[in-house]
Amino acid sequence: MTRELRCQVCVIGSGAGGSAAAATLAAAGRDVVLLEAGPHHDPSTFDQRETTMMPRLFEDGGLTATRDQSMAVMSGRGLGGSTVHNTGLAVPAPRPVLERWAEGGGLPLGVEGFEAAQGEVMRRLGARVVDDDEINANNRVLADGARARGLEFIIARHNRERCSGCGYCMIGCAYNKKRNALFAWLEGAVANGLRIVVDAPVDRILERGDTTHVRGRDLQVQAEEVFIAASALRTPLLLRRSGLGLRSVGTNLRLHPFAPVAALFDDRIAAWRGVPQSVLVTGDARFFHGGRGGWILMAGAAGPAATAAFVPGHGRDVAQLMGRYERLAFGGVLLHDEGCSSVRGRRDGRPAVKSWPRGEDRDGLVAGIRSLAELYFAAGARQVFLPFTRRPRVNSPADLDGLERLPFRPYDVTLSSVHPQASVPMGAGRDAPVLPDGRVRGARRVRVADGSLFPGSVGVPPQVAIMTYGMLVAQVMLAEGSS
Amino acid sequence: MESDHLMGRVLVAATEAFVSSDDNHLPPVADTATADRLAALVSQLPPDQRRLLRMGTRALQGISLLRYGRRFHRLPTDRARRLLQRLERAPLKPLRRLHRVLKMLCQYAYFAGEETWPACGYGGPWLGRIDVAADAAPDVGDLS
Ligand SMILES: Cc1cc2nc3c(=O)[nH]c(=O)nc-3n(C[C@H](O)[C@H](O)[C@H](O)COP(=O)(O)OP(=O)(O)OC[C@H]3O[C@@H](n4cnc5c(N)ncnc54)[C@H](O)[C@@H]3O)c2cc1C
């Protein structure tokens, strides 16, 4: 039997953006229903094993990839969305990126308004700089190498409290130390009357007169206003299924492609233990200073299985590398991608992502890989392992010659993405699928409130900026008094 | 299903080729529960990817038969490894794709097992070994 609910506002998706929007609306006294496709995960059942946790916390069991499977693309499913398994980096969007976005009308309250709101989000998350004794060996070698190479780096802020440093953040914190969306937004919102329905995937949205109907499996919600926050991969699909929005929906996707690099040291690193990502090398991050492109060098966090999946070579290479897993540092290049990827719906409803870095993005990744390899050698690495199938291993900086000439076709280079964004961008131009008030162009009462809204790639880990958009889009609606 | 059984054997043979080597202490694939983990992973694949993988493993059997006169899962490990190395550099995109998918699945499945962890120096989960006082979970009410 179909269950029917009525409310003033229905929010679809409970990740970084949706939970911030729902909490902001509930705090203002609105009657809000939040629909989440996945379950409510009970942290007391998190067992710190990749084989059990990946299928539980990730879409498609963590096996989502681009349509041609050349790049893994991961995102979360369940109450709290990807904030349940993210690594807890809380980094606000840098001002020059915001200025670029504001020029195109892509920031709801302008640069100052957005920055003030990011400050509020950081407070909500309890974001704090990682303590010196929390910086693990995997991150320490990054800082050492950056110092030796004269590259700027920062010690990042994180949303974690009294962290024990077990290192399993990416497969869910069993100890409730990560201040994810449930802590930061949903607990308070429920106290303010928010109603949450889990295991409630939404199929489509229909605008009829003054009400909007949200249809899911065995569930129908009638609302005056709807906010979609189903992630940058799924919000465009829901819009298309519902016949809403411009044809360009889904075509501005950015992925922050990540190229993994590993390095062998003499001493024990045990990269899987401790706060996974505390040092961000920003020396090559041109977007921090108003330029195009650029990248961040950072640690990669992974258990043995996820690490092994990306290990290059065959037989002896793999066995030797994993046999020295303890002495390996893991990192990678996080690219501020300028080129567009795209996402469309498959017949089975899952996202079909098309992406492969070209031009300046490709050049940026290769330069970033070189920079990280040089950094590791400067920090004392004996060997560095690259994501190129044609040169999986180098023994000295001289071996990095000619990286730019190696084949860079799909599968020649290992890449992954955990930051899909910008698929339904906000802007003032007629070609922007979302208006500066968050409304979907062509729809009356449907807004977007997640990472889809970014006008382009943010360059830094995106949860703070996404929560800020969620909060601001809700505030704009409240200010209109339209509900 | 017969074809799933054969696919399983191809995947186990590919794992052996990807990870085995004389000079290390990793356990032989047959001594681990890799085959079960591979079967579980394959069952989690979205149907279209599972179909493609089945086609890919069949193609691998065919290529192996043409090249070495034996199906892939019956090849000696060093030959199987050489064949996989050729796929990695193949000019045809579907062959490079098959290599990538096999490599990720097989290496993931093998190292996900605790049988391999001592040789990697990985001590495994803290739960049950090291006590950490958990904070209270956020109270989000009744979610029915
Ligand atoms: C491994 C990993 C590590 C990361 N680490 C960091 C980090 O350290 N710092 C950082 O800033 N960012 C990090 N991120 C990224 C960050 O967590 C995400 O960018 C962010 O959570 C995305 O927010 P969102 O609201 O757009 O989508 P999500 O948080 O992904 O939430 C979307 C939600 O919508 C639900 N949904 C989808 N479709 C439907 C539907 N049809 N009906 C109802 N519900 C639906 C999904 O189940 C999901 O719960 C990481 C991501 C990953 C995968």
Summary keywords:
heterodimer, A: 483 residues, alpha/beta, FAD/NAD(P)-binding domain, 2 domains, seven-stranded mixed sheet, seven-stranded antiparallel sheet, 11 helices, 20 strands, 27% helix, globular, B: 144 residues, mainly alpha, binds flavin-adenine dinucleotide
Topology:
The complex is a heterodimer of chains A (483) and B (144).
Chain A: E1 3-12, H1 16-27, E2 32-35, H2 50-57, E3 71-73, H3 95-103, H4 110-125, E4 128-129, H5 137-149, E5 153-155, E6 157-158, H6 181-191, E7 195-197, E8 202-208, E9 211-216, E10 219-228, H7 235-241, E11 258-264, E12 279-281, E13 295-299, H8 304-309, H9 316-323, E14 328-335, E15 342-345, E16 351-354, H10 359-378, E17 383-385, E18 393-394, E19 415-417, E20 446-448, H11 463-480
Parallel strand pairs in A: 1-2, 1-10, 2-7, 3-19, 10-20
Antiparallel strand pairs in A: 4-6, 5-12, 8-9, 9-10, 11-14, 11-17, 12-13, 13-14, 15-16, 17-18
Chain B: H1 2-19, H2 34-44, H3 47-68, H4 77-88, H5 93-111, H6 117-120
Helix pairs in contact in B: 1-2, 1-3, 1-4, 1-5, 2-5, 4-5
The structure holds flavin-adenine dinucleotide.
Flavin-adenine dinucleotide (FAD) binds next to helix 1 and helix 11 of chain A.
